[in-house]
């Protein structure tokens, strides 16, 4: 039976960089998740009888909200729901399912790299029919609706047996529980030269992949061990756990340190990689070398033609504004378009749909291509392996020869997590107030060339997104960028992005933090971070 339930609005349901993210106790309040899901449906047109894909990263509360979303989809008139077995579906695999089965859209339950558990984070994101995160036009409409909502529709029905592959009915709506790995693995086989990677591995090349007890485990196990023949045990922490084993499923040098240390041992594996909670991020390490995500984008772009999917070349490369400019140098050499977008994958959707960009990337361990409309962790790992197999070189050789050709961009992000919201906001607004006075000012050997608050003009639909981060550009090409996170769930997180370009190959083996020390000092000087936040050091340095 379909029921209409009266409700009252919550005032805090504005989607952030990637959907609505809150602590589980917030989401578990009566009507909270229902209000948001109904606000999503109320902001869409024309889904009657169409298909909705639902999946999540397996974190605590995933199964509860999946059942709710299925019953609400049935009550709101969707014709069919496709849901991953066990409620599991990585973000890139969800994007693929939406596209492949021409679904109307999808609901992805994830808080990505944030920890999971009864008192940790949860999230809901809506993806549109192109498989990508809803653009701002839709997320704004969802927020407006959430402030007025007074009822939602849901049906009384038994829970769907999520662990059983098959087809079930909820009222007159069909629910298909599918194997979350099969279609995704098939797509990867189409894009890459699996034979070449198999030969590389059979020749003794050793891989260590850390799924961080999150959603990528089943995908990596099937692809890396079963299909590519890596030894059993190459994929670690491959069982998705509701609390990610108590860790942050965040693939970086802080949270994937064990893997990093293993690869750095003289007898360690040749290649290490890790992915995040929902499978869209990646970290790449080789013997003696950590590849920064910004470098990874540039290197993948310069070598993508070695993989079957990209052998015809790239249309263009897009990067988020805080991502280093290393990829721009590749685009310029290839004579293809370079695009700079605000943070968040939703801004790449139009460029990919319009065929302007083929590869996209973010400094936050996110890379992807036009094969789906999300960043894709395993895809990046496989493209790296395909390139290594084709070049017959190590990660170290590929990276250092890239630097020799294009110059090296030293890059780091300093995060100040869970600082006071008021302090963070006033730090940013005072920086904004200073911008006009900065050009021409000097600090030690740095001279400011330009300073602005980044605004993006979408070249496809003409939409404008303002206040996307403060950038200070120096005459020598260095940059410092400040912005506040849109994915955190407690207080505010200040991100400071630091970048220095070094064309001279004799200076390519320096320590990153040391090389950036002048810029770090400038950031403190101009923003007064220690005084305002009460922190004398960042929480996380990546
Ligand atoms: C962060 C990253 C951003 C990424 C977003 C979602 O956002 O900086 O690059 O797109 O997370 O990634 P923010 O607003 O906190 O800086 V994921 O893997 O959390 O979906
Ligand atoms: Co993620």
Automatic annotation (TrEMBL):
- Supply the PROSITE patterns for this chain: PGM_PMM
GO BP terms: carbohydrate metabolic process
What does it catalyze? Answer: alpha-D-glucose 1-phosphate = alpha-D-glucose 6-phosphate
Query: Which EC numbers characterise this protein's activity in its record?
Result: 5.4.2.2
Write out the GO MF terms: magnesium ion binding; phosphoglucomutase activity
User: Signal peptide location in the record?
Assistant: none
The UniProt entry's GO CC annotations, sorted and at most eight, read: cytosol
Concerning InterPro entries, the annotation shows:
A-D-PHexomutase_a/b/a-I, A-D-PHexomutase_a/b/a-I/II/III, A-D-PHexomutase_a/b/a-II, A-D-PHexomutase_a/b/a-III, A-D-PHexomutase_C_sf, A-D-PHexomutase_CS, Alpha-D-phosphohexomutase_SF, PGM
Question: Locate the Alpha-D-phosphohexomutase alpha/beta/alpha domain: which residues?
Answer: 13-148, 183-285, 294-406
Recorded hits in PANTHER family, A to Z, give: PHOSPHOGLUCOMUTASE (PTHR22573:SF2), PHOSPHOHEXOMUTASE FAMILY MEMBER (PTHR22573)
Can you tell me which family this protein belongs to?
Belongs to the phosphohexose mutase family.
Q: What is this protein called?
A: phosphoglucomutase (alpha-D-glucose-1,6-bisphosphate-dependent)
Q: What is the lineage of its organism?
A: Bacteria, Pseudomonadati, Pseudomonadota, Alphaproteobacteria, Hyphomicrobiales
């Amino acid at each position: 039976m379909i029921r209409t339930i009266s409700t009252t609005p919550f005032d805090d349901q504005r989607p952030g960089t990637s959907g609505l993210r809150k602590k589980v106790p917030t989401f578990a309040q009566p009507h909270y998740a229902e209000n948001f899901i109904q606000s999503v449906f109320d902001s869409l047109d024309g889904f009657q009888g169409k298909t909705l894909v639902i999946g999540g990263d397996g974190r605590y509360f995933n199964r509860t909200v999946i059942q709710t979303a299925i019953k609400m989809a049935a009550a709101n008139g969707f014709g069919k729901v496709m849901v991953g077995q066990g409620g599991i579906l990585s973000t890139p695999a969800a994007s693929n399912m939406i596209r492949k089965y021409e679904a109307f859209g999808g609901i992805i339950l994830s808080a990505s790299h944030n920890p999971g558990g009864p008192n940790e984070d949860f999230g809901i994101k809506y993806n549109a029919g192109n498989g990508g995160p809803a653009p701002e036009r839709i997320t704004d409409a969802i927020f407006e609706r959430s402030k007025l909502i007074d009822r939602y529709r849901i049906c009384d029905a038994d829970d769907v047996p999520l662990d059983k592959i098959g087809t079930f009915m909820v009222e007159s709506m069909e629910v298909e529980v599918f194997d979350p790995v099969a279609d995704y693995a098939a797509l990867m086989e189409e894009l890459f030269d699996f034979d070449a990677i198999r030969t590389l591995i059979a020749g003794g090349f050793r891989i260590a992949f850390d799924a961080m007890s999150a959603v990528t485990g089943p995908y990596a196990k099937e692809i890396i061990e079963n299909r590519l023949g890596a030894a059993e045990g190459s994929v670690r922490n491959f069982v998705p756990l509701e609390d990610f084993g108590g860790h942050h499923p965040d693939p970086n040098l802080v949270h994937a340190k064990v893997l990093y240390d293993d690869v750095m041992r003289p007898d360690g594996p040749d290649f290490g990689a890790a992915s995040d909670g929902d499978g869209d991020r990646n970290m790449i390490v080789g013997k003696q070398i950590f590849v920064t995500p910004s470098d990874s984008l540039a290197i993948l772009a310069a070598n993508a033609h070695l993989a079957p999917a990209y052998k015809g070349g790239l249309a263009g490369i897009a990067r988020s504004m805080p991502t280093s400019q290393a990829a721009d140098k590749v685009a310029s050499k290839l004579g293809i378009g370079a695009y700079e977008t605000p943070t968040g994958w939703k801004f790449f959707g139009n460029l990919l749909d319009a065929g302007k960009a083929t590869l996209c990337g973010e400094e936050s361990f996110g890379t992807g291509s036009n094969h789906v409309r999300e960043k894709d962790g395993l895809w990046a790992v496989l493209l790296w392996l395909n390139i290594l197999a084709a070049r017959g070189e190590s990660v170290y050789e590929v990276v250092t020869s890239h630097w020799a050709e294009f110059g090296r961009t030293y890059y780091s992000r300093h995060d100040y997590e869970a600082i006071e919201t008021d302090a963070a906001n006033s730090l940013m607004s005072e920086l904004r107030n200073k911008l006009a006075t900065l050009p021409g000012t000097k600090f030690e050997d740095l001279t400011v060339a330009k300073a602005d608050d980044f605004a993006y003009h979408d070249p496809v639909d003409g939409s404008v997104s303002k206040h996307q981060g403060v950038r200070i550009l120096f005459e020598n090409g260095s940059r410092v960028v400040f912005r506040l996170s849109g994915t955190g769930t407690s207080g505010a997180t200040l991100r400071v992005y630091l970048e220095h370009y070094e064309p001279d190959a004799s200076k390519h083996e320096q320590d990153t933090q040391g090389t950036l020390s002048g810029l770090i000092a400038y950031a403190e000087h101009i923003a007064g971070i220690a005084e305002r936040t009460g922190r004398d050091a960042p929480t996380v340095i990546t």
